[in-house]
Specification:
This protein has 251 residues and is of the alpha/beta class. It has one domain (5-244): TIM Barrel (Alpha-Beta Barrel). The protein has ten helices and twelve strands. An eight-stranded parallel beta barrel has the order 1-4-5-6-7-10-11-12, surrounded by seven helices. The longest helix has 15 residues, at 58-72.
Length: 251
């Protein structure tokens, strides 16, 4: 049986790790390279870095950050934020990233997923999907949940898989930063309708939420930020509790 993955997420703005609620009210959470090393040593299975700044120098800065992280950690890590071309992906993978995450650029140009999967392989391509419920329908949103699209979550997820994505990072914008638990019903439906791994994101507040994301949500991995950054949950303790609940994890 495949082990379930625990993935700390580091939102990067101007070279620092930040965290907010529903993508606003950001506060500083530390140096991303130091945090990455701490998480690697603490037993995290993977890391995700999402660059949320939009400066002209962003790509160069991000490539430099990736290089520094690659020198300090021995677990796979994914990088996302503003990636919109083969050139963007090439520079990040060359500097040491294992995977890239695309979101808005894939919505605006779905063919990009085909191109990236064809060039680098599906195993390198994660598609992040941010969605929130509107009148009972899960609607895909852009710009940190501010801009609704015409896309429905489950239809878009299936299209993403068809186009060659290796996994999906699904964030419930309704749950993000609230610490009320993951969107387990939506996760379970995604897991049942797709054949690629689903990463749960948005809503982690305690260890039981992680247990529920795997048991009820059928997620392949669970991602969280503030509960790890501010030391509310210890990864080693979390994994022991998951193992105690018959959830297979790497200790």
């Amino acid at each position: 049986m495949l082990t379930k993955r625990i993935i700390p997420c580091l939102d990067i703005k101007n070279g620092r790790t930040v965290k907010g609620v529903n993508f606003v009210d950001l506060r500083d959470a530390g140096d991303p390279v130091e945090l990455a090393q701490l998480y690697s040593e603490a037993g995290a299975d993977e890391l995700v870095f999402l660059d949320i700044s939009a400066t002209e120098e962003r790509r160069k800065t991000l490539a430099n950050l990736v290089l520094r992280v690659a020198e300090r950690v021995n677990i796979p890590f994914t990088v996302g934020g503003g990636i919109s071309s083969i050139e963007d992906v090439d520079i990040l993978l060359q500097n040491g990233a294992d995977k890239v995450s695309v979101n808005s650029s894939a919505v605006k140009n779905p063919q990009l997923i085909n191109e990236l999967a064809g060039k680098f392989g599906s195993q390198c391509i994660t598609v992040a999907i941010d969605a929130k419920q509107i009148d009972g329908e899960w609607i895909v949103h852009l710009v940190g949940g501010k801009v609704p699209t015409e896309l429905r979550l489950f239809d878009w997820a299936k299209e993403v898989e068809r186009r060659g994505a290796g996994e999906i990072l699904f964030t419930s914008m309704d749950h993000d930063g609230t610490k009320d638990g993951f969107a387990n019903k939506a996760l379970a439906r995604l897991s049942s309708e797709l054949n690629i791994p689903i990463i749960a994101s948005g809503g982690a507040g305690n260890i039981q939420h992680f247990i529920d994301s795997f048991k009820e949500g059928k997620a392949d991995a669970a991602l969280a930020a503030s509960v790890f950054h501010f030391k509310e949950i210890d990864i080693k303790v979390l994994k022991k509790e998951l193992r105690n609940n018959t959830i297979p994890v790497r200790l």
